[in-house]
What we know:
By secondary structure, the protein is mainly alpha-helical. The chain has helices spanning 20-33, 45-52, 56-68, 87-111, 114-129, 137-150, and strands at residues 42-43, 72-75, 79-82.
Amino acid sequence: MDDNEVYQFSRSETMGRLPLSEQVYLTLKEAILRGKVKPGVKLNEVAIADQMEVSATPVREAFRKLAKDNLVVIKPWKGVRVKGYTAEEIVAMYQCREVMEGLGARLCAEHATEEQVEELKGLCQKMHIRKNGLKLIQPSIALLQPILATKKW
């Protein structure tokens, strides 16, 4: 973790009508989620304000929103750092994902049409034939989304 890691931010032209704090928030959020700013890096309010050509106030507001999203940690008198995750937190996230994916699959199985079931069976057969069936996963996800979207839960 390098406290002095260099990052460069600039506001996107497509965000022109959004409030400045929202522009800063979206820019920082994207950079964090895409890994352009690594966990543990200290974010410098003044440097970000200068780079994005805004005052410090929108940057502070963006930091607060990022903290609510659990993307940064704000420590009074110490600054703002991009949040890193412990092994335990990562395991907990995967456990939640496992439960959610199981629930989604069950709901799809309960509400799928015969045509959709047959299409999924065909995709499964193709995956067993191929050594690398990963390319077939996206079409199956695309097939499952409308099943969930059409039902009123």
